[in-house]
């Protein structure tokens, strides 16, 4: 599933195409994706002008001058195809704008979704309600990390994946950030040291910004709206590199499964904590 950098890449790619433009035609070629499409989606969007585009956690946001916001969830295979040469089988919703541009929401597996909600109520939508601070936003700081790790018994990786605590982090970038901070993914939150948290604090936004600059990571289906592929996967230090030599110490990268997801790490660079965090 696309993570924060991939969604950010998509929304930045859509901004010059949609921002300030009026939808002249919006056509849904099926009634549902993961969930039923909003009733009257095409009618409500046709004639509306896009005011701004943004992102919240792993969701794209498109605000219109009618007081509505389109919430885009790419799911596992969703992508936005800009000015496609021809319609493809899985182009389920097609948007046309007054500047002659065409964008198709393509989703082969139909795990994505489109929701249209009142802008002033968007934050309370079930997809967005209760999500924690953005790791690239003004509310992200060292105190936030100290607070969310606290004395928790949950593993460090699980804490960072909890969208209620911090927004938008997924499996790939959590593995990479924990490696940079020298934190074993199974370390209980309360046993992550103060020194490790000081390393983790800049590591999280750094790995996200680097991934965004690279256009995200192309694993399976992700592509930017113009069709270009992200290449951050070429810079993975541990993710997907089981058995390869660690880029720091040359020890083999290891893999374990946590809550059904693969965690990649270097046990030499990321040893398990043996004492409680000192404050």
Overall description:
With 279 residues, the chain is of the alpha+beta class. Helices cover 23% and strands 20% of the residues. The chain has 6 helices and 10 strands, in the order αβαβββββββααααββ. The protein has a 4-stranded antiparallel β-sheet with strand order 1-6-7-5. α1 runs parallel beside α6 and α5 packs across α6. It is elongated, with a radius of gyration of 20 Å.
Sum up the overall morphology in one term: elongated
**Spatial order of the strands forming the largest sheet:** 1-6-7-5
**Beta fraction:** 15-25%
Mean pLDDT: 91
Category by helix and strand content: alpha+beta
Instruction: List unreliable stretches of 5+ residues.
Output: 218-223
Biggest sheet features: 4 strands, antiparallel
Helix coverage percent of residues? Answer: 10-25%
* Assembly level: single chain
CA distance, first residue to last residue: 36 Å
- Pattern of helices and strands: HEHEEEEEEEHHHHEE
Number of helices: 6
Radius of gyration: 20 Å
Give a count of the beta strands, DSSP E runs of length 2 or more: 10
Q: What structural keywords apply?
A:
single chain, 279 residues
List the helices and strands and how they pair.
Blueprint: H1 4-18, E1 23-28, H2 41-45, E2 50-56, E3 59-64, E4 68-73, E5 79-82, E6 91-97, E7 102-106, E8 113-118, H3 142-149, H4 156-161, H5 171-181, H6 194-213, E9 254-258, E10 261-265
Brief synopsis:
23% of the residues lie in helices and 20% in strands. The protein is of the alpha+beta class and 279 residues long. β2 (50-56) and β3 (59-64) form a beta hairpin.
């Amino acid at each position: 599933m696309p993570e924060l950098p991939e969604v950010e890449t998509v929304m930045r790619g859509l901004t010059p195409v949609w921002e300030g433009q009026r939808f002249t035609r919006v056509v849904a070629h099926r009634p549902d994706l993961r969930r039923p499409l909003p009733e009257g989606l095409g009618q409500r969007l046709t004639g509306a002008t896009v005011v701004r585009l943004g992102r919240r956690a792993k969701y794209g946001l498109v605000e219109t001058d009618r007081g509505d916001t389109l919430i885009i969830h790419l799911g596992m295979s969703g992508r936005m195809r800009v000015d496609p040469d021809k319609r493809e089988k899985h182009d389920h919703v097609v948007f046309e704008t007054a500047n002659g541009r065409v964008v198709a929401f393509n989703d082969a597996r139909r795990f994505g979704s489109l929701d249209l909600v009142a802008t002033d109520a968007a934050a309370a939508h079930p997809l967005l309600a209760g999500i924690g601070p953005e790791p690239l936003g003004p509310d992200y700081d060292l105190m936030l990390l100290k607070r969310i790790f606290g004395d928790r018994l949950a593993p460090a990786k699980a804490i960072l994946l909890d969208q209620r605590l911090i927004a938008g982090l997924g499996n790939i970038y959590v593995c990479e950030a924990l490696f940079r901070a020298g934190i074993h993914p199974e370390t209980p939150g309360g046993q992550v040291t103060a020194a490790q948290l000081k390393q983790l604090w800049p590591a999280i936004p750094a790995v996200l910004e680097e991934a965004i600059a690279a256009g995200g990571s192309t694993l399976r289906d992700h592509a930017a709206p113009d069709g270009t592929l992200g290449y951050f996967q070429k810079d993975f230090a541990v993710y997907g590199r089981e058995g390869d030599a660690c880029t720091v110490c040359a020890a083999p990268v290891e893999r374990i499964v946590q809550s059904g997801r693969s965690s990649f790490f270097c046990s030499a660079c990321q040893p398990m904590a043996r004492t409680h965090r000192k404050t």
